[in-house]
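Appendix C reproduces, verbatim, an entry submitted by the partner laboratory led by Prof. M.T., so that reviewers can inspect both the input and the predicted structure.
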Amino acid sequence: MEEEAAAAAVTTKEENQQILKVLEALKQASHDLQSNPTPKSTESNSIKALLELETESDSILSNDPYLSTLSHHLTYLKSIVDSLEKSKATRRHGLRSFLSRRVTTHEISRVAGSIESEIQAWIDRECIENLARSLNNPNSNLDEETLIQMLVQFEKRLNQGFNHELQDLVLKSKLFSELECVLCNSDYSKQVREQVAFCIAELIRFNKDVFVGQVLMGQTIRALISMSSPSSLKVLCSLIKSIKSPLVDEIESNGEIFDIIRLFKSDELSIRVMAMNCVLEIGYFGRKEAIDAMLKGDLIKILVELQRGELGGDLIDVGKWEEEESGGCGEVVVEGKEWRESSRERRYLVSHPFASCVARFAVQLEVGEGLRQREKRALKQEILKRVREACVSDAEAATIVAEVLWGSSP
């Protein structure tokens, strides 16, 4: 019985793959037809393809109840095209004939749009069901590369913008829960888990109001921080930007601020850079409790040491770094704050990611959304105090203090 069920599942999968291949081509044909439903287009490849499917619909579409509406649309399209061909054959002239042809071509365009929508709905349903089934069955024979391709396809579909039917499919399949389970399961490879993380971030962009609650109540943030890869931290930054203070509150309440600060000790530069980006985002959106936690974690001392190192430096002195070049003025976005930098300064930040990092952090607090004005003033004084304590010389302290005082006023 199990062998028969497995064979039936393989047969169904092969049939669906055949239908999927046909429908992908027909979706493009129906899309082309919407933009060019002129009388001459009745002889085009788009209409021919759609009408050929209508002829074969009994054998291709009748076995799938979800495609019955598509079959009706194709039958209706054939009748409209036949009507248009007959009107062309009679070669009648006059206003009534002209208006009749215009109405008919408009109807062809409308029906083609309905066909495209039905095809996309079927493709969405098939892809989400397959993905949910694959994620729910870790013992399946699905290879890792195929699973990653399915996740990438899902991410791209979400990136096309909000669609109510697609959201219903995601919710009914409980796909978010399946994605989170994989993200938290270390038995999966890092590549799979990272791609899952990108899908979760895309779901938040797709409809934050619906999916943000699942992020806050689940284990997504903890899993991203524990993975501590450049990609997982990139997703964490993206989620902080999208969800803002509520997510920072969750990170702080779980004691994970210190976990992020510990990432500055990583041997991998890309992880230290992403930790810096996370700290800047938390500084922009975090409330006083989160900022206090970062200060208690010796963040200022760490930033002073990074600024002192080879990958640090001072943006004030960037002209000395590349005096021979001149550049126009441009915009550089530094984690929520727009800095007006020359092209030389942009290149300097790429090669020196921790340049003026203390002042950049101070700016985030100053222009951010999480603190009251009196809290901003008090924290600036606290930062200046900790800078003086962390510096190894008066000259170093004077430079960083000047940057903090200058950069904290946008």
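The beta strands are 329-334, 337-342. Additional entries are available on request from the coordinating office.
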